[in-house]
User: Fold this.
Amino acid sequence: MSTTPRKIAILGVLLACHLIAGRFLTISFPTVKIGFTFVPLVLVALLYGPIWCAVIAAIGDFLTAMIVGYGYFPPMTLSAILTGLIFGVLLYKKPISTGRILVCVLLDCILVSLFLQCYWLSLITGKAYLVLLPGRILQNLVMIPVELLVIRAVCYRIANVVADSAPIRGYHYAEK
Assistant:
């Protein structure tokens, strides 16, 4: 887990992108929220692996909570860390595979969003878990194809540009 000035700068920019996406690039409807905070996390996962992705996710969660003003709830950071680990373990140093990306997105949506986040929200709001679950299911039914498409079509290409259009640690993500 070596750090170079370039790596620190890229991680800082991706953390800033995570904060901006969390604050400004979120589309909210009454029952569904479409957000793009996953994009910087996927880029960190592709470029630097699960540990750095978990660290950026945790810092991003904390700073977003402070900036947006919802207040900080530490268990939510656990969910962010788990998301970073899922992305990192399944995407780092792996060739492009729609199946792998789908597994990654499904694990994150089901394990983190439906189970953990919904449980944390029930603790925060005092509403029953089963009352919150239908809204979370609807949100994830919208987000699964969005995340799959964006990761597959956009994130790998951006990762190659960030890596100076050279193979990232021996893996070139552009299809031939």
